Amino acid sequence: MSDRLYDINAVCNMLGTTSRTLRFYEEKQIISSTIVFDSPRRQYTAEQIDHIRNVLVLRSLGLSINDIRDLQKQNTDLRSVIELNKAKIYALIAEKVRTLNLLNEALLTIESGGDVFNTTEKSSVPAEKTKEIVKICTKAIIEGDEDTLYGFLSEKLKAYMPKQAFVKVREDTIKPLGDYVSIENLYFDNDYPNVIYQRVRYEKLGLRIKYVFCLDRIVGLWFSYYKD
To answer: CA 48, 54, 55: angle at the middle one, nearest 5?
Structure first.
């Protein structure tokens, strides 16, 4: 590591923050500076700057000062924390985009004279058949078998979410969770018989997969996390 020291103003310009913020974080003991005897100004080593950059990233993810202090006391790998929060953000974005897609489909149904509240057609496939499809698709998602999964998706969903896009979403969502542990409970939505949830346990966190069916085709697919 270089022995060069950087003045606080240079560090602020480098990281896009303020000297007041750095002083505050130092008062809260989540960062440190280097004091040189012949200078009253705070200065920083390259290693200290890297640490400050990590703290700024964690703050941007919504972690509190106390959260960051606890992570430091536990000597938690900050990279894994950042990766996990990044995955949560990707999953949230993917869920919002897919919700928008379903809203677009609802608008098309209305414009064509259909009834978006009529779930008779959507739920007319036997529950055992849709449960079996969910089991097959969940296994495919865990193993990264896009060919099997895409064999059950609707044409609209496949067009909206091409395989290369799904591969990226899957990597960003699942990879940070650690090693696969087990497939857990499968259950239907209480209000919508065409919606099925499947829980999958991973080393660091659980993954909940939401499947939305129209007949025997999957028209919606969401990833979210759970802890318990």
So the answer is: 90
80: left (phi over 0), alpha (psi -120 to 50) or beta: alpha
Distance between CA atoms of residues 184 and 200, nearest Å: 5
pTM score: 0.52
CA 224/CA 87 separation, integer angstroms: 10
Burial zone of 30 (CB within 10 Å; 0-12 exposed, 13-18 middle, 19+ buried): buried
Residue-range domains of the chain with CATH: 6-76 (1.10.1660.10), 88-226 (3.10.450.50)
pLDDT at 147: 94
Would you give the DSSP letter of residue 41? S
Per-10-residue mean pLDDT, the chain, length 228: 80 92 92 80 90 87 85 76 75 73 64 55 71 96 94 88 87 88 92 89 92 87 85
Tell me, what amino acid is at 8?
A: I
List, for residues 9-64, the tens digit of each pLDDT value. Answer: 999 999 999 999 999 999 999 999 988 777 678 889 999 999 899 888 888 878 88
Which residues make Cβ contacts (< 8 Å) with residue 115, sequence separation at least 6? 109
Other Cβ atoms within 10 Å of 96 Cβ, number: 11
Which residues share a beta bridge with 222?
210
DSSP state, residue 152: T
Sign of the torsion angle spanned by Cα atoms 84, 90, 95, 98: negative
